Amino acid sequence: MSESVFVTVPEHVAIIMDGNGRWAKQRGLPRTMGHRKGVEAVRETVRAAGAAGIKYLTLFAFSSENWRRPEAEVSDLLGLLKAFIRRDLAELHRQNVRIKVIGDRHSLRSDILGLLLEAEETTKDNTSLTLVIAFNYGSRDEIARAVVSLARDVEAGRLRAQDITPALINARLDTAGIPDPDLIIRTSGEERLSNFLLWQAAYSEFIFLPEYWPDFSPEIFRSAIETFASRDRRFGGLSSQAAAVGT
């Protein structure tokens, strides 16, 4: 993968891939066609992230609330995930991409879980881009599972309640070991997180784009990163300009 051409490249970009259904509706197509076109956008985005020098790319693939959708649509989404892994795993492995899956695994079908575990195991030693797939993921559920894990340790006497810190909570989240996202992008014009990385997004920059996910291109991605690079991130402190004036 080529080196980044950006002055300031975010280490971790997370994307809420929204608008597949509306993209299809605009064109008089079934929703399934929007999801299939969206998979093509995923492939292009993974390549663009690697070329830009981004180290972590998190994609909100399937939320814990998506099970409420019509059964036929859920079945198609699961089929697309399976097809993506079967078709693209070898290529991602060749590109030195590591795959990490976050989300609740306990209720997943064995065929889906098996594929996700295979993808993680096959690519675990890769050192280029880490592709984080948020599947059956909901941030409130993730935080609740982390709290339950800590509560069990307190109950068993392995941990004192007063010793619980943000760092300890962070270590029990699905994203343990992964840096918080520097930039969160959402397509389709919606401007909300929709239960995505609520804890991790504390100091993330946000970019909301009008384009539907199937229209998300490497050019749009590069433009978003350039916008990110122009922002002054303060993390609760002074801006770089104000700090310079005060010195």
From TrEMBL:
Record keywords, A-Z: Magnesium, Metal-binding, Transferase
Keyword field contains Protein biosynthesis: no
Cofactor(s) demanded: Mg(2+)
Cofactor binding comment, as recorded: Binds 2 magnesium ions per subunit.
Keyword RNA-binding: no
InterPro entries in UniProt: UPP_synth-like (IPR001441), UPP_synth-like_CS (IPR018520), UPP_synth-like_sf (IPR036424)
Its EC number(s): 2.5.1.-
A Pfam family this chain is assigned to: Prenyltransf
Function: Catalyzes the condensation of isopentenyl diphosphate (IPP) with allylic pyrophosphates generating different type of terpenoids.
Subunit and partners: Homodimer.
Protein name: Isoprenyl transferase
